[in-house]
Structures are given as structure tokens and as C-alpha cells.
Amino acid sequence: MFTINRPGLFIRYGLMNMPINYKDYPPDWKEIRARILARAKNRCEFCGLKNYSYVWSVHFHLRDIDKYKIRNIWFSNEKDAIREARGLTIKKVRVVLTVAHLDHDVENHSVSDDRLKAACQACHCRYDAKIKWERMVSGSKKGDYIQ
Predict the structure, then answer these.
(1) Residue 93: what are its φ and ψ, rounded to 5°?
(2) Is 100 part of a structural domain of the chain?
(3) With a threshold of 0.85, does the pTM exceed it?
(4) Position 130 in a domain
(5) pLDDT digit string, tens, across residues 56-93
(6) Total tally of structural domains belonging to the chain
């Protein structure tokens, strides 16, 4: 995952679904979340996108050697998305900030605020991708944290 250094263009890939099971979080999680978003001025602390803003997503299939990869490219400007899509489907996406555990341990209920970051759904998925892949490959459970 990376961001192209051009105004208004964001490259994102991976799953965009961020389900949450509040049973895995501390009872005051909603207050913690509000505090982290306020600290971040309601923006993703990775890419800077504003909470509840909209971006336009173009779904590309890219060839890399002998494999195809799927990439979603997010544009902050609809005209840029239309120009770059070249006939591909454009989807309007609402940016929703989540809170990422920098230690990847959602069961750590005593985590300090400096170990939490506001993240849009794309950046959060990117941040968690490596650890989720390692867990899947090793067969470890959610609570087994690979460092």
C-alpha cells in the first residue's frame, strides 16, 4: 500500500470491510475512539483523508509478471477519477475513520492513546495486512500475536 505523491490521488488495495465486535474491546471503547479522532482532528493519521468525506474509487486489474493484482485507486476529485478510469467502473466511497491498534492487540484493554491511531478503512486494512497474513499462514488465532 502506498500513496502516490500527486495531489488528489490515493492508491489503496486490499479488503475495505472493517467489521467490529465490541465484545473484544474495552467497555469505554466509544469514548476512546472519540478521543483518538479528536486528537487526529478527524483525519486519517496515515494519509490525511477527512472522516466522512468522499473519494472516488476505480477498480483496476494490473498485470505483474505472470500474475494479476487488483488495486483500488482512490481519487479525491471525481473528474480525475473519470479521466483515469478510461471506461472502468467508478464508485463513490465514504471515508470512515477507525482506530488502529499499533500493537495489533485488540484484547489489550489497557492500551495507551499513543499506541492507537485514527485510520481510514483503507489505511487500517493496509496496516493490519502483514500481521493478518502471518496469522493466516501460521494458522495462529486472533489472540496469538506474532512480533
Answers:
(1) -120, 130
(2) yes
(3) no
(4) yes
(5) 999 887 777 777 777 888 999 999 999 999 888 899 99
(6) 1
